[in-house]
Amino acid sequence: MLKAESVYQIAKELSDKELRKLFTMISEDMSLKQSPKSGKKKYTFPTSEIEMEIDKMIWTKIFNVKI
Question: What domain count does the chain have?
Answer without folding.
Answer: 1
